[in-house]
Amino acid sequence: MRSLRRFDYYNARSINEASQILAKFKGKAWPIAGGTDILTIMRFQPLPEERYPEALVNLKSISPSLEYIKEEDGVLKIGALTRLEDIAHHPIVREKYTAVAEACSRAASPHLREMGTIGGNICQINRCWYFRKEDNRFYCLRKGAGGKAWALMGDNRYHSIFGCVKLDTPEPCVYGCPNGTAIPSIMSRIKNGDFEGAAEILLNFNPIPYITGRVCPHKCEEQCSRNILDESLAIRAVERLLGDYILENVDRLIKTPEAGTEKKIAVVGSGPAGLSAAYFLRRRGYKVTVFEKEDTAGGVLRYGIPPFRLPKKLVEKTVEIFQNKLGIEFRFNTEIGRDLTLKDLMDRYDAVFLATGAWKEASMQIPGEELMENGLDFLKRVNKGETKTLWKKVVVVGGGNVAIDVARVLLRLGVEPIIVYRRTEKEMPALKEEVQVAKEEGVKFEFLTQPVKAEKVGEKIVLTCVKMKLGPLDETGRPKPVPIEGSEFTMECDAVIKAIGERPDLSFIPAEFVEADRLKCDVSGFIGRNLFAGGDAVTGPATVVEAIAAGRKAAESINVYLTSKKEEAPPVKREMRLEKVDVSCLKKMNRVEVPELSPKDRIHSLETEDVIGISWEDAKYEAGRCLNCGCVMAHPSDVAPALIALNAEVVTNKRTIPAEEFFCPGGLSTTVLEPDELVVEIRVPTPKPGTKSKFMKFSIRSSIDFPVVNCATAIRSQNGVVEEAKICLNAVAPLPYRVRKAEEYIKGKPLTEQTVEEAAEKIMEDVNPLPYNTYKVSIAKALIKRTMLACK
Fold it and tell me: Does the residue 787 lie in any domain?
């Protein structure tokens, strides 16, 4: 059993002092009133490391100033630190505010009611089993970005029967995407046949989805919650189809920017980062000029990726759209440092974005290295049409994606490639699926092999290698390869192509902007003056989607720089709405098979795509598999529905909040409270004459504090006819659930067995139970009926 986690501890002397301490820790301190929930979490530690508080702020030390029950001016006022036991037995509360008294008398266990406070009950932390399981076995959505929707696919007996809510943390697939693409929203629209709507969302994140749909490493799929159940969604295949749809409907989907600012921006480099920045800057109305040293645009898209993975017509189409539809200017055959200096650009343009990529091959520092060709140089030659070769056998040195691409190209040119890599296959930085495809096509691998010398012997190159063994972990987190003494051997080949990593060429950058062979770049991409950078030029070799994300981020940073105004969403009231869970997708469903050519057919063509796209029928099927991951926790508070039924307000040190707007799931919180905001008082208006209220709860046993379902009802009647009704269920959804259709139905009717039965039945119009909690629907209907009859 774990020991209690360490933390700082503060005894607050006032609400103001407590708020100041909380504000100082910026969300990394938690207030406690009784502490049973929080100390349990601190002991069993079910959360990710970054989610624990650095400090706890004790509010009980403020007592007795916040322990009171009084009626003033027609309002019941209860101090936030008033014990539940005292409220449950208070004669005024029992007589006039019956539902509140009954809720307090059923909350928690008898012992905890003697310590627990009303403020603590309405602010308690998530009680979901997946959230509280020790050792972080279930990294759920509420625990932070990257968590999975475990309850949708596992034991959901005690969870929501009215759907899910989306949290303020990203869904697993969105978290996995370096560009933060709104994948669930896109899938939802495709599922409903709204392809245009899906395309519009995608274009808000990615200007070239028909390219990423072919070459993206789809980290989103690795994070997909469906991996728990069967297989991830085929997100990349769907993106490819949607991207091709955009190309087919360019005139309708890609809008020509309206007249905007006269400010001019220079983008240096037309790879994915440069194209992305140019696109998003042009959408904001800036005049954008892209400088490219080659005679056509695309960078690594045009010259670094083989055509069987990415047809070059797609890159050419991109340039056409950018020029003719968006009005972006391209200047080809213009090299910064040769034709123009960087200072020239910085003087002529309002901002400059460097997206020059990483094209310089790292050095092996061995004798005879000058006999080797660089991997990217080889791919560039092939992409420019130089496909004739007399080579028969070529050694490719390296274990990354470039090495794999080089070997697969060589195969298609009729050459026998051998990849030599100094670690094992497990440590290869190349995508696992690309390694597997290369193997299927016939590429040979020599693992734990390190070249140490190359020499020319006649028309051949003799490569001397040594065998390696894996040692301790190095600075990259991988085992360090260690030479095995006496293991030298030679390999004879026609050529050696090295692909051991690339770095950016910074030779044209003034020294003031460079430090330790890296650009002096902050997280926003800002270097200095009006200069920005992003993509591989900053990070070194990365993926196309990471470069797109860097370009989009740079466009935002440049816009802030030029307008001196950070674009922030206007403050809005945190509002959660319940969304339907498509229970039909919770069963096992095979992932769609993405068609591709056989290895035999693939290796005979350099131009033919090896992967074939899916159909719209397939895309809709895949979208139907999407879980649309949302939280299905059952809100834990017993007091909450009673406060809502009786129109209570929650007073904090900053504002007064209607009880119905107070509860809102968000990560570790179940309320709308800000990190330094504290509940001070509960106010319940005196019920109008003729009003009766009732609270009932169903739990496994009377002494357990977790409700399976609870219900609070307040009904005002006159002459036996209902004039006003307010019914609130809890533990049935991630937030308290107003049964509005039952309230409306019962108005103007007497409270009889038949009318309350019919009113309770109204929940069936909205109920959305999960596979294992349909029984809760019957309990909810029974409690609605019984609380209503108790109000006769």
Answer: no
